[in-house]
Amino acid sequence: MRIKLLAVGTRMPGWVEEGVAEYLKRLPAEFSLEIQEIPLAKRGKNPDIRRARQHEGEALLKAVPRDDLLVALDVTGKSLSTEKLAETLGGWHNEGHNVSLLVGGPDGLDPACLEQARQRWSLSAMTLPHPLVRVLLAEQIYRAWSILQGHPYHR
How many domains are there within the chain? Predict the structure, then answer.
């Protein structure tokens, strides 16, 4: 199974790259995580937020591989425990699915992304900085894999 994290925003700080890389190297090829950055739409002095979000949404959806299950990360989404995440990803893995996770820009996801998503997940009721979301997701995907393998990491 391939999990593709499509995230609006580029040029992450070094600590983000290092944190994500640590978990990517631990995941096996049959349960891989890829990150694809989508450029942030231009925002001037008086930005048209709706238009910027729409532009980012179009770019996100265009980057989703054809048969991927689509999950939108959104504050209004369903909160999952780590165990439930492992169960969900394990089921999709066993069914042969690939997954794309969408992370919006500073103004969230475009409604078109939310409408096309098979599921909506919330990582927290708190607002998290987008660089931290990448590290958090990489760690949780590794943790979910470790649960499925009976690996002691989860303890």
Answer: 1
